[in-house]
């Protein structure tokens, strides 16, 4: 540019036009910034022209000011538009370069899994809690009194024989004759919590007792010496077998879906009278909808209430017990008890939420 | 359990002609007699009657003699000779009782016998044997394999035998083609161990007309009052000096003689068939008759050779040292609780043992092939006495099974009458009219029964007539009823009916459990509702560890020497404080675990052996801590509430059984495959898992590493720490000792922890968390690195920093641990990023400098210097 004090309208217009043309040719931010320096920087025609306005006549100043305002705006607009365009293109290119195959398998942390059996026990607990019952538990190494005598099993009941029940050795010092007299066993049924509950909480009582029980059966496809039951016990002033049937039907639905139902079949247990076997009907039963044995139940035998100091003329109650393993086998079509007890992680890992 | 043969059932109850076994099972289960199995025929024909035309003995080189026989099996099955004539089949038979002229049972090619034994023509001993003459065992009829079945011994009348023709279907003849129903009888219903009882239940279920056979028999029983003592069949003395629970071992003994029996009389075919189908072998007519009466009426009986025994018969307990060889040839040492049937040779009362009452007879006094005069015994024994003897001597006989469950104590004369009738009819014997009947059975006290009990227990609205009708129908004598109260005397065959609730069960089951209405009870909402805090905590632990990536498993709690050895636990120390099982399933694991890790290790091992890698499992379960000084647990009666002292004594003797959680982690802690980050498990994984458990519970735990020599042997001595909560050790965490890893086949650095949840939960508050306000003032962040001796733990330094910083400390993170030559031997460097923030103002640089100075000063007192 010739001279630095002369305002030359034509020259500055031409310079700005050149600059705008250059902007339109630019394709990167780097170029754009260079163009901005050249055409709008401190030494650019546009800046020098603006400074030169000061030396113009008063009437020329206004005209020149207007012109410069327009030129600056034109240049700025062109620059802004191009800048947005270039930025978008650069960003798109960068993102494109970061594209990955989202289907690559990613497993940074193992998933972990609950075992379905305690999980099912929790579901059963929730069923009872939902009805306002309480969940209680008692010891697994139990006295014979709570497991048998209190439940109306006489001393000569076949269940009290060594072929069914694990007996616990007494302390050698006190018990030279071997185990006799330890009066301790591994509980054979969660019913052992019945009288504990009655004595501990009093009546009215609505409790469910989930837990581990033991019988001297060898492990095979359908038996395991260590298994789980849930015992339900309700004792109140006005309970009948109708209430028992009502709760069983609800539990069947909770466990086996809205169409499931239960029925009672006459049977015998020392701690209930009347007694019944529980049959379960559900549509997804293996081999087609039908009835299958599920557990045992009945009205609490008066002798059980007496064991807890409760007058059977004042109170009645019902109790039932279902096997958790059995429920699980039926629900999930598990064919072999080994899978349930061996602790193979592949077994637990299959179980996810689901009705 | 009892077999139910429809053909036999018809004797007492009107059964529809076309009743199937499936329908019978349904009818019986409705009243509580459950189907065990419907046994179907295991035989496929053709199995036919054969007539042995000739039998030529042919001695063999191996010393055996076989018979080369020609057997006529009828036109349909006979051979065809070259001229097209039907000729008998050639059959090789090795049985010693094979001879020409016999009618036998021939299984022909195509037949299939039990055990998938297929009959084919086969070449043997130089002949083609074109079928097989069958023994009882081969047809599944019994144990006899001494010879083939000779139909002449099968109890056919001469006319019936004559009418048997070659080619007749022998399956049908012997009822081998019929199914049979096996039922389960609950222990309270001994009477259902008889056709009399099952027929009654069939009537109860279907309403079919039932006639109690005992009524007719009783009409023919000779009346005992008619004869004087001297003329009785035999004298009987009941002399029980050791009753169990005060109950006399025998309260009824009925003896009746049957004289002039023709030895060798055949058991009629129908009886033999019924016995066989019930699973009993036919032995001789007198024995078969006693068995038949037992199956039919439910009264176990015994037949003695009257000429061999000398009165009086004495029913007494055994004396110490007495022995008896029972009919099955086994010798038993008798126990003073065993009840014996004895006789009195040479006037010595009760000196010779005839058998264990109600269980099994001895070798002496039994009916033999020569017996002509028979004494029938029908008695009523104490169920507990019989049950104990049967178990003690391991003889669960058909008789003991019935006595244990309770036999009708009014049945004895009728049963003897029935047996006498059968011996008279088929053995030409003459029953005596002077039986001996010692009867001290107690009179039943009537049950006072309020009809309202039916509603109160069963929820059924039945009127008095319905109630009365059902009770009467099951055999009760029902009186009263006017004021809604009955007096009910249960029948003699129902010793189980003793209380009102027993009668309610009878009414409800016969009226139908399915007719009881349905109602859902409303539990009173009082006090605490929902899961207890500890129940919720247990779930939190279980869910938390699964969320952390571990798999929950369960194991049996049984442990033994091999487990102690693997964990380097001293068996002599642990066994006396372990719960020991008297009758373990596996003799090598007779103890209950004191640590979950021992049994969890077996689970992990099983997984590793199955080729699964990176196994990380946890288990929540109980452990059992026996106290050798625990007081003895008292034996207390049922049906009475123990005193509070007694209840305390029950629990005081039990071992402590705290709930534990344990985890074992092996292999890779992180393995993101193609992403390429792999990291083997070490102590830090177990520490993090344990800390997460504590954190989720809101428990304040610290790790306290013991000196190497104080670390239990199962743990890595330099990588293990106590988990301490509220000053109490609640667990252990770290790496297993490499020797334990080797023993169990685990990779080295396998990490583990075990926490006593019962103890940990005990340190927690049930109160809700009290939230702190969140400060919105800016934080000040600083990095602080200290050098310190190895003996100073990270925990100690961190605690010092926390205390020095006070409330403004928002967080403290260890970001570097360095041990290197520059620091010198036995020193390390820990670098922390700390964040300060005040709740009420912006911290100035003077503030943070002051805090920093306090920290540095405090650390220095522990021997930790700030690194420049």
TrEMBL record, chain A:
Catalytic activity, as annotated: tRNA(Phe) + L-phenylalanine + ATP = L-phenylalanyl-tRNA(Phe) + AMP + diphosphate + H(+)
Cofactor(s) needed by this chain: Mg(2+)
Main location class: cytoplasm
A Gene Ontology BP annotation from the UniProt entry: phenylalanyl-tRNA aminoacylation
GO MF annotations, alphabetized: ATP binding; magnesium ion binding; phenylalanine-tRNA ligase activity; tRNA binding
Stretches assigned to coiled coil: none
Sequence similarity: Belongs to the class-II aminoacyl-tRNA synthetase family. Phe-tRNA synthetase alpha subunit type 1 subfamily.
PANTHER family named among the record's database cross-references: PHENYLALANINE--TRNA LIGASE, MITOCHONDRIAL, PHENYLALANYL-TRNA SYNTHETASE
Protein name: Phenylalanine--tRNA ligase alpha subunit
Organism of derivation: Bifidobacterium italicum
Gene name of the record: pheS
UniProtKB/TrEMBL annotation, chain B:
Protein localization: Cytoplasm
Cellular compartments per GO CC: phenylalanine-tRNA ligase complex
Catalytic activity: tRNA(Phe) + L-phenylalanine + ATP = L-phenylalanyl-tRNA(Phe) + AMP + diphosphate + H(+)
Annotated cofactor note: Binds 2 magnesium ions per tetramer.
GO molecular function, one term: magnesium ion binding
Domain TRNA-binding residue range list: 41-162
A Pfam family annotated for this UniProt entry: FDX-ACB
CDD domains: PheRS_beta_core (cd00769), tRNA_bind_bactPheRS (cd02796)
Residues where Mg(2+) binds: 496, 502, 505-506
Enzyme Commission code: 6.1.1.20
UniProt keyword list: Aminoacyl-tRNA synthetase, ATP-binding, Cytoplasm, Ligase, Magnesium, Metal-binding, Nucleotide-binding, Protein biosynthesis, RNA-binding, tRNA-binding
PROSITE patterns: B5, FDX_ACB, TRBD
Residue ranges annotated for the FDX-ACB domain, each copy included: 775-867
UniProt cross-references to Gene3D superfamilies, sorted A to Z: 3.30.56.10, Bira Bifunctional Protein, Domain 2, Ferrodoxin-fold anticodon-binding domain, Nucleic acid-binding proteins, Phenylalanyl-trna Synthetase, Chain B, domain 3
Residue ranges occupied by any B5 domain in the UniProt entry: 442-518
Domain of life: Bacteria
Similarity comment: family membership: Belongs to the phenylalanyl-tRNA synthetase beta subunit family. Type 1 subfamily.
The protein's assembly and partners: Tetramer of two alpha and two beta subunits.
Name the record gives this protein: Phenylalanine--tRNA ligase beta subunit
Species the sequence originates in: Bifidobacterium italicum
Highest classification ranks of the organism: Bacteria, Bacillati, Actinomycetota, Actinomycetes, Bifidobacteriales
């Amino acid at each position: 540019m010739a001279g630095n004090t002369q305002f030359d309208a034509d020259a500055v217009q031409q310079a700005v036009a050149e600059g705008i043309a250059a902007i339109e040719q630019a394709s990167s931010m780097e170029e754009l910034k260079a163009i901005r320096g050249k055409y709008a920087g401190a030494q650019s025609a546009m800046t020098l022209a603006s400074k030169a306005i000061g030396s113009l006549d008063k009437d020329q100043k206004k005209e020149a000011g207007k012109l410069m305002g327009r030129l600056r705006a034109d240049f700025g607009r062109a620059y802004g538009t191009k800048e947005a365009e270039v930025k978008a293109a650069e960003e798109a290119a960068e993102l494109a370069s970061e594209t990955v195959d989202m289907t690559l398998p990613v497993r940074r942390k193992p998933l972990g899994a609950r075992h379905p059996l305690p999980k099912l026990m929790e579901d059963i607990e929730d069923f009872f809690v939902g009805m306002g019952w309480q969940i209680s538990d008692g010891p697994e190494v139990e006295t014979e009194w709570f497991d048998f005598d209190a439940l109306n099993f006489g001393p000569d009941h076949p269940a009290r024989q060594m072929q069914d029940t694990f007996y616990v050795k007494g302390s050698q010092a006190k018990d030279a004759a071997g185990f006799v007299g330890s009066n301790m066993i591994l509980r054979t049924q969660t019913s052992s919590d019945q009288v504990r509950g009655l004595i501990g909480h009093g009546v009215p009582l609505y409790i469910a007792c989930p837990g581990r029980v033991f019988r001297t059966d060898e492990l095979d496809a359908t038996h395991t010496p260590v298994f789980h039951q849930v015992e339900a016990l309700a004792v109140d002033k006005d309970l009948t077998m109708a209430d028992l049937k009502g709760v069983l039907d609800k539990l069947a639905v909770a466990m086996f879906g809205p169409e499931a139902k239960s029925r009672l079949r006459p049977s015998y247990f020392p701690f209930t009278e009347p007694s019944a076997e529980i049959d379960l009907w559900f549509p997804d039963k293996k081999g087609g909808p039908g009835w299958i044995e599920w557990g045992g139940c009945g009205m609490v035998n008066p002798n059980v209430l007496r064991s807890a100091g409760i007058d059977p003329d004042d109170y009645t109650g019902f109790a039932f017990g279902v096997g958790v393993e059995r429920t699980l086998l039926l629900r999930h079509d598990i064919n072999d008890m080994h899978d349930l007890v061996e602790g193979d992680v592949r077994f637990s890992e299959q179980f996810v939420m689901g009705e | 359990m009892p077999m139910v043969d429809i053909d036999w059932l018809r004797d007492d109850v009107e059964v529809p002609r076309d009743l199937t076994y499936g329908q019978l099972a349904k009818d019986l289960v409705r009243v509580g007699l459950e189907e065990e199995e419907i046994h179907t025929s295991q035989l496929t024909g053709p199995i036919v009657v054969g007539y042995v035309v000739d039998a030529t003995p042919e001695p063999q080189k191996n010393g055996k003699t076989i018979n080369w026989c020609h057997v006529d099996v009828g036109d349909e099955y006979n051979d065809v000779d070259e001229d097209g004539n039907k000729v008998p089949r050639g059959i090789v038979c090795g049985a010693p009782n094979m001879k020409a002229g016999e009618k036998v049972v021939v299984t022909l090619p195509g037949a299939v016998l039990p055990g998938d034994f297929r009959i084919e023509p086969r070449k043997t001993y130089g002949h083609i044997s074109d079928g097989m003459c069958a023994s009882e065992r081969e047809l599944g009829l019994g144990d006899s394999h001494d010879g083939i079945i000779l139909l002449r011994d099968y109890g056919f009348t001469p006319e019936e035998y004559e009418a048997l023709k070659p080619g007749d279907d022998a399956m049908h003849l012997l009822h081998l083609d019929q199914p049979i129903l096996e039922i389960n009888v609950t222990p309270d219903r001994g009477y259902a161990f008889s056709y009399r009882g099952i027929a009654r239940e069939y009537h109860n279920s279907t309403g079919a007309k039932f006639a109690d056979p005992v009524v007719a028999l009783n009409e023919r029983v000779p009346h005992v009052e008619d004869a004087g003592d001297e003329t009785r069949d035999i004298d009987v003395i009941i002399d029980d000096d050791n009753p169990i629970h005060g109950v006399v071992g025998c309260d009824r003994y009925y003896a009746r003689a049957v004289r002039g029996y023709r030895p060798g009389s055949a058991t009629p075919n129908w009886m033999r068939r019924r016995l066989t189908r019930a699973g009993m072998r036919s032995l001789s007519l007198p024995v078969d008759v006693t068995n038949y009466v037992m199956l039919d009426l439910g009264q176990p009986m015994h037949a003695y050779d009257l000429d061999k025994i000398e009165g009086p018969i004495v029913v007494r307990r055994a004396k110490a040292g007495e022995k008896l060889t029972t009919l099955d040839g086994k010798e038993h040492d008798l126990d003073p609780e065993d009840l014996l049937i004895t006789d009195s040779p040479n006037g010595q009362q009760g000196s010779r043992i005839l058998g264990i009452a109600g269980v099994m007879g001895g070798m002496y006094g039994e009916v033999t092939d020569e017996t002509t005069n028979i004494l029938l015994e029908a008695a009523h024994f104490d169920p507990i006495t019989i049950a104990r003897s049967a178990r003690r001597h391991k003889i669960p006989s058909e008789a003991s099974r019935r006595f244990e469950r309770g036999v009708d104590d009014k049945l004895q004369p009728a049963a003897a009458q029935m047996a006498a009738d059968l011996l008279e009819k088929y053995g030409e014997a003459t029953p005596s009219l002077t039986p001996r009947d010692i009867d001290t059975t107690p009179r039943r006290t009537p049950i006072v029964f309020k009809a309202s009990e039916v509603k109160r227990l069963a929820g059924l609205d039945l009127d008095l007539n319905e109630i009365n009708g059902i009770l009467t129908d099951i055999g009760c004598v029902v009186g009263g009823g006017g004021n809604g109260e009955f007096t009910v005397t249960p029948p003699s065959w129902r010793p189980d009916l003793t209380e009102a609730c027993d009668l309610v069960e009878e009414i409800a089951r016969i009226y139908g459990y399915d007719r009881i209405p349905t109602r859902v009870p409303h539990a009173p909402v009082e006090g605490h509702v929902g899961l207890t805090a500890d129940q919720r905590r247990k779930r939190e632990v279980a869910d938390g560890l699964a969320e952390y990536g571990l798999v929950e498993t369960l194991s049996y709690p049984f442990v033994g020497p091999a487990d102690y050895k693997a964990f380097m636990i001293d068996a002599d120390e642990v066994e006396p404080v372990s719960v020991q099982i008297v009758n373990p399933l596996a003799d090598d694991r007779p103890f209950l675990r004191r640590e979950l890790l021992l049994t969890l290790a077996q689970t992990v091992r099983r997984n590793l052996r199955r080729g699964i890698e990176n196994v990380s499992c946890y288990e929540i379960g109980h452990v059992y801590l026996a106290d050798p000084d625990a007081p003895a647990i008292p034996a207390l009666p049922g049906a009475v509430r123990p005193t509070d002292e007694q209840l305390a004594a029950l629990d005081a003797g039990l071992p402590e059984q705290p709930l534990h959680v344990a985890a074992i982690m092996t292999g890779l802690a992180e393995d993101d495959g193609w992403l390429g980050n792999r990291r083997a498990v070490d102590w830090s994984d177990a520490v993090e898992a344990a800390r997460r458990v504590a954190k989720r519970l809101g428990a304040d735990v610290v790790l306290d590493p013991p000196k190497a020599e104080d670390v239990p042997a199962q743990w890595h001595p330099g990588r293990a720490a106590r988990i301490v909560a509220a000053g109490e050790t609640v667990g252990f965490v770290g790496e297993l000792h490499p020797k334990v890893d080797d023993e169990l086949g685990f990779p080295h650095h396998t990490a583990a922890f075990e926490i006593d949840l019962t103890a940990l939960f005990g340190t927690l508050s049930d109160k809700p968390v009290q939230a702190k306000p969140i400060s919105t003032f800016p934080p000040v962040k600083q990095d602080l690195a200290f050098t310190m001796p190895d003996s100073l733990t990270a925990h100690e330094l961190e605690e010092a920093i926390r205390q020095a910083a006070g409330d403004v400390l928002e967080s403290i993170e260890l970001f570097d641990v360095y041990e290197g030559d520059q620091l010198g031997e036995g020193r390390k460097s820990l670098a922390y990023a700390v964040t300060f923030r005040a709740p009420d103002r912006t911290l100035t640089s003077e503030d943070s400098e002051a805090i920093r100075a306090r920290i540095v000063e405090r650390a220095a007192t522990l021997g930790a210097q700030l690194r420049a």
